[in-house]
Amino acid sequence: MKHIVIIGGGIAGIETASALTDAGHWVTVIEKDTRVGGKLNNWSYLFPDFTPAEKIAESLLEKCREKDFSILPDTEVKAIIRNQDKFNIHTSGNQNLEADAIVLATGYELFDARRKEEYGYKIYDQVVTSADLEQLLRPGESLTVAAGKNPKRIAFVHCVGSRDEKTGNHYCSKVCCITGVKQAIELKKRLPEAEIFCFYMDLRMYGKHFEELYREAQEKYDIQFIRGRLSEASEKIDKSLLIKAEDTLSGRPLKMNVDLLVLLVGMEAGKGTASAAFSCGVNCEESGFLKSMDSLLRSNISQQEGIFLAGSCTAPMSLNDTLLHARSAAIEVNNYLKKSIK
Amino acid sequence: MKKEGKIQVWQDYQKEIASDHYFYVRSCIRQNFFPGSEQTFLKILREELNRDIYENPHHTTCSGIGYHSDVVPFDTIQTIVARQFALMTEAGYKNLAVSCITSFGIYNEIIETWKEFPAELEKVRSLLKKATGREFEVPENVAHASDIIYKFKEDIAGKKKFSLINQLTGKPLKIVEHIGCHYSKMFPCKGVGGAEFPHVLVGMIESWGGEVIDYPERRHCCGFGFRQYLVMSNRGYSLSNSRKKFESMEPYKPDAILCNCPGCPMFLDRWQYVIEEMEGKTYGENGHGIPVVTYEELAGLVLGYNPWDMGMQMHQTNVEPLLDKLGITYDPKLKYARKDGKMIGSPMMVGCGC
């Protein structure tokens, strides 16, 4: 039986592990946190149909329980040494694993919104990220802002840390547009009296039902979409925020008071991916995400033989895309191991 | 508002500021607007802090205003800057201390250009040599004069005669700070605290006992923008920019406005007088304006210097409300007196808030 070590126990890691176990392989997942599921554990509801994130997380856990693969929680990879056709993997728990193939599924990190200093994240109480808002949207959580009231006017800023030369992130994080639409609708459902504005550069509704949700946000929920990027946010004496932007469709500068500002933060490759890339000798793109052999036919195959890539460690991805990418990674690993048996 | 968030930003933007042996380059315009500020800076450094600071009377304008107005070509301004550096080199100094924010931006822009394009540096060396026979070294350290006061703010606090406390209420004075655009908006890493939440003036205010006001239009231009005031027909833009700031800061009832640029205090000071003349509107308490001070003047007041010796009678928005709150005693009759007691003449039109 061939042994595959998967680094990362998020959505991609668990889905790949499940598929490879089904194919008859022995699989071990190394996860740095106590729980598997990665960023999914921090999300409340998922686009485009508001599925509770817990439901997907539970189905992943069920796979962990039902399928016969091992998980090493609270464990990090210290070193990977290639030994002919095998890999020796040394972990922070002083374990030495021998593997026939490795799958990197180290995921992404959220952009640190403090780097966009002009928006005042972690300085102004009324500025939150999309990830913070997910926590606030959980049942029972209060949406009260610093002034001690429910927000009456809310603004979303798209592309925070994405498509932004100033932060060095030229790429699109893909999921923020639809996340903004989803969260705006959720807020409108919770706060029907609130006015909600989304400041965007382009709205990229590429996925199934995304465009329909965007239309619904405008027609049914009266959410206003303004094409323009925020230049700054400042706190007013009444603890509301003054935001400045340019409405590029009307060609006019715009100032607005809001009670809550939501920054739709993008994805970054993160330290875990950089560290995994260094350990394995896998190259990174300019963006920091892992480089595959090519982006069309071999997007799961790294430049190191026997090392495969799954999920958002290669590029920003939605949950759907991550699951598909993970399954295709499992197929590539299976094919590779079959060839090596011959 | 979370102070910890600001502290994190401040920690991200700390810069190296030389501790002694400065070559000082003055501003073209400050000596007209706020004639005692630069002299106060030299006095503080030499007499209070025992530092070596040298200036050469042969240094000239950096020509920054001409450059930003598109009348001085880049090659010309580079050569002018190179000549300033030559004077510094000839005097044996390596640390440049710059009075003007425009010049500070110019020096940084040109030094960064030379780092990115070394051929430009060689060209300028050649141009300067041909024109003047001089040679130069690039400064090892470039600091704005406000950086230097910031560096020594605790030393000044240790010698202070007055704290930034309202003697009438016992509460910290509420001060609005305004940095010049070219201090850190061009190169955030060149300014203490960066561009969005600069710390250079905040640090002085807090060290000397005051409280900083963060108001919505804090980042907005003071109204000095070169094209707004150089072209007379555009001066309404300058005035409206300043007015926008006054309207925004008014609800916080600031006791003073602190600046580190030659232009900002000039316009924030003058336009208050103009707005009062035009609309009868004043932004301070009891019909007064909001006094506008330079960081040297504020340091001088804290150290107990005579406000009239620092040229504060030249302000168009009267500074007396601030002096009263600080508990500084002054003789109003001597406001327009020379050192020898003779009167220099009081202005035909009185300042804002009189």
Which descriptors apply to this entry?
heterodimer; A: 342 residues; alpha/beta; FAD/NAD(P)-binding domain; 2 domains; five-stranded parallel β-sheet; 20 strands; B: 354 residues; Glutathione S-transferase Yfyf (Class Pi), Chain A, domain 2; Rossmann fold; four-stranded parallel β-sheet; 8 strands; 44% helix; 8% strand; globular
- What's the CATH class of the largest domain in chain B, please? Alpha Beta
CATH homology superfamily of the largest domain in chain A? FAD/NAD(P)-binding domain
Percent range for β-strand residues of chain B = 5-15%
Tally of DSSP helical segments of chain A: 7
Task: Characterise the protein shown here.
The complex is a heterodimer of chains A (342) and B (354). Chain A is of the alpha/beta class. In chain A, 27% of the residues lie in helices and 27% in strands. Chain A has helices spanning 11-22, 53-66, 130-136, 176-190, 210-219, 270-280, 319-341, and strands at 3-7, 26-30, 45-46, 51-52, 70-72, 77-83, 86-91, 96-99, 101-104, 109-110, 127-129, 153-160, 195-200, 224-227, 230-235, 241-247, 252-258, 260-265, 267-268, 307-309. Chain A has a 5-stranded parallel β-sheet, sandwiched between helices. In chain A, strands 11-18-12-13-14 form a 5-stranded parallel β-sheet. In chain A, helix 1 packs parallel to helix 2, helix 1 (11-22) packs parallel to helix 7 and helix 4 packs parallel to helix 5 (210-219). The longest helix of chain A has 23 residues, at 319-341. Chain B has 2 domains: 18-145, Glutathione S-transferase Yfyf (Class Pi), Chain A, domain 2, CATH 1.20.1050.140; 153-334, Rossmann fold (3-Layer(aba) Sandwich), CATH 3.40.50. Helices cover 44% and strands 8% of the residues of chain B. In chain B, strands 2-1-3-4 form a 4-stranded parallel β-sheet, sandwiched between helices. Chain B has a 4-stranded parallel β-sheet with strand order 6-5-7-8. Chain B is globular, with a radius of gyration of 20 Å. Classes of the chains: A alpha/beta (342), B alpha/beta (354). The A-B interface holds A 114, 117-118, 120-125, 232, 234-237, 242 and B 1-2, 4-6, 8-9, 194-197, 214-219, 251-252.
